[in-house]
Amino acid sequence: MQLPEGVSEHDPIFPIAAASELAGMHPQTLRQYDRIGLVVPGRTRGGSRRYSARNIAQLRQVARLSGEGVPLAVIQRMLDLEDEVQDLRAEVRALAEQLREERETRPGARVFATNAEGGVVTLTGTTRVRRQTDIMIWRPPRE
Questions:
Q1: What is the mean pLDDT of the chain?
Q2: Which domains occur in the chain, in start order?
Q3: Fewest CB atoms within 10 Å of the CB: 81, 89, 110, 118?
Q4: Cα-flanking dihedrals φ and ψ of residue 113, to 5°?
Q5: 8 Å CB contact between 107 and 137
């Protein structure tokens, strides 16, 4: 779905009639999915539902999966996990940006990682870090 410039896939912009048409579902089905917490749209101040492009994609996925016989409880778990993955990816991007800024603005700063056994490893710009590693930035004291 092509969105206008400046509009995020998470912006609640579609009223229920447009969302139901875009998702290929009856509006009552969208209301039911909202009631059970499967796909929850944003709301206007007046309480009207407003669906985002992300909600539309989720509704299409629900339709496809339920058409394949997947129970709604399983679909709910899948959607929750996808949202969690999206959140984690955003957090990783933010942390990578923060790390990049630290390296650029503080040339004396060193980055360390601790492994599962508690050992400390100094990281260079090309060191690859395993998932089970904690990263810490050491900043020299200001003089």
A1: 84
A2: 1-105 (1.10.1660.10), 106-143 (no CATH)
A3: 118
A4: -130, 150
A5: no
More confident residue, 133 or 35: 35
Predicted local confidence at residue 100, as pLDDT: 84
The first and second tokens of residue 129, run together, are 């870090």
pLDDT of 31: 96
CA distance 126 to 8: 33
DSSP H/E element including 137: strand 134-138
Give Rg (Cα) of the chain: 22
* Cα–Cα separations (whole angstroms), residue 67 to 12, 43, 48, 60, 132: 26, 28, 28, 11, 38
Longest Cα–Cα distance in the chain: 66
Q: Which of 115, 136, 112 is nearest to 124 (CA)?
A: 112
